[in-house]
Design brief:
With 335 residues, this protein is an alpha+beta fold. Among the domains are: 84-150, Dna Ligase, domain 1; 176-239, no CATH class. It has eleven helices and 16 strands. The strands form five sheets. It has a five-stranded antiparallel beta sheet. Strands 4-7-5-6 form a four-stranded antiparallel beta sheet. Strands 1-2-3 form a three-stranded antiparallel beta sheet, covered by helices on one side. Helix 1 (11-22) crosses helix 11. The radius of gyration is 20 Å and the shape is globular. One of its GO terms (molecular function) is glutamate-cysteine ligase activity. Keywords: ATP-binding, Ligase, Nucleotide-binding. It holds the Pfam family ATP-grasp_6. InterPro entries: ATP-grasp, Dala_Dala_lig_C, GshAB_ATP-grasp.
Length: 335
């Protein structure tokens, strides 16, 4: 496991610094709180923020990816499958559309957000109250909200660097596996003892929380934090699979076919991004990449690097080296 020598820095930035120094690149930390660094080798200088915000990308590309509505429009124009849905600008407007979504699986999310903030998934929607509550939650994070068809399947994070996919992860929602003895609360505490887990992105994985979101999700499963799961039973604590909320990361780089990788690269190119995290839902990775088998639900302009180098399961993809390659600092391990 990589040791983060400076706890002020996010792990992705610390990794990039270490990889740079191994290449003889001079590194200056300009603002540790902002993870802002300067790289210098001979007369080649690059400024990097949070490991992936670099001169390789234009100013407009992150703004496109930040706006989920604009991103979907551009991807759809480039014949890339995205979820169907609408954008609303008020709670009342959303409530007027309730009948159109009744009985369906939907996702309600702020137009511009990261890390799964404000996102709610509702299955077989029947409750107008739950629907309104989800809409109000999303509006707490933005002035516009997207209501989309839920795309079934497994979610994968494709990290695109330059013209290639550098790594692919399947992200599993925060969970514990029962042993027939310990409560869910105790199992979370045990799992959180893993040195890979911490807080604030200074470690490869984040600690699992037991807050209102997790407690409510357990209640939907007729469970509480004091429930003792059966031996071998997996209990999920959240619907969303973000690593930032305690999810597990499993490397799938070699298991996903070239056609899906090509779609991720095409999506990044469509929005003009050289560094991009493409979140893709795939129903069956063994089937060809036709429109009925996948959908891109989001593009991320500041994708985490550390989750690909230190996955919960799988091998180190050395994506920090690929960033340095992209920035013109020679050819390291990353190809």
């Amino acid at each position: 496991m990589f040791k983060n020598k400076d706890s002020r820095l996010e792990l992705s930035t610390a990794m990039l610094i270490d990889a740079a120094r191994q290449r003889g690149i001079e590194v200056e930390i300009l603002d540790a709180d902002d993870n802002f660094i300067r790289l210098k080798k001979d007369d080649h200088i690059e400024y990097v923020k949070q490991a992936t915000r670099t001169s390789a990308d234009t100013y407009i590309a992150p703004l496109i990816m930040e706006n989920k509505a604009v991103t979907k429009l551009i991807l759809r124009e480039n014949d890339i499958s995205v979820p169907a849905g609408i954008m609303v600008k008020s709670v009342d407007e959303a409530v007027e559309k309730f009948a159109a979504f009744r009985g369906r699986d939907i996702v309600i999310k702020p137009k511009s957000s990261n890390f799964g903030i404000g996102i709610v998934i509702l299955k077989k929607l029947q409750s107008a109250t739950d629907y309104r509550d989800a809409v109000e939650q999303a509006f707490r994070h933005d002035v516009s909200v997207l209501i989309e068809t839920f795309v079934p399947g497994r979610e994968f994070r494709f990290l695109v660097i330059g013209d290639a996919v550098a790594g692919i992860l399947h992200r599993v929602p925060a969970n514990v596996v029962g042993d027939g003895v310990h409560t869910i609360e105790a199992l979370v505490a045990i799992k959180n003892q893993d040195p890979l887990r911490g807080k604030g992105y200074v470690t490869p994985l984040e600690k699992i929380r037991l807050e209102q979101t997790e407690i409510s999700f357990l209640q939907e499963q007729h469970k509480t934090i004091l429930t003792i799961p059966q031996k071998g039973e997996t209990v999920y604590l959240r619907e969303n699979s973000n690593i930032s909320t305690g999810g597990d990361s499993i490397d799938f780089t070699d298991a996903i076919g070239a056609d899906y990788k090509a779609i991720a690269v095409a999506a990044a190119k469509a929005v003009g991004a050289r560094i991009c995290g493409a979140d893709m839902i795939i129903q069956d990775i063994k089937k060809p990449a036709d429109r009925d088998n996948y959908g891109i639900i989001e593009l991320n302009f500041n994708p985490a690097l550390h989750i690909h180098n230190y996955p919960y399961q799988g091998e180190n993809r050395h994506v920090d080296d690929m960033i340095l390659n992209l920035l013109g600092y020679g050819n390291g391990r990353g190809k």
